[in-house]
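Session log. Operator J.P. requested a structure for one protein chain; no other inputs attached. Running the standard single-chain path with token output.
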Amino acid sequence: MYMLFDYIIFKYFVISLAIGLFFVYVVDTPKRVVFITPNVDNLDKVTYKDSSDKCFKYMASEVKCPSNSKKIEPLELQ
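Structure written below.
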């Protein structure tokens, strides 16, 4: 173990370690925000938080389709 310190100068080791850790911290990839849309499979598994830090969950309910097809509006994907 002590033979290792014959080849490594402690001061340069600490300086290079600090520079390496700083480089990894600065070059770290940015975090991505993943948006989860509610669906039937994840209704009971996901809790959502709005901009005012209030938590909520969605509930599913079946509805009858109107007999008049003009009352049905298409839903645009976001």
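Operator note: DSSP finds two helices and two strands in the chain.
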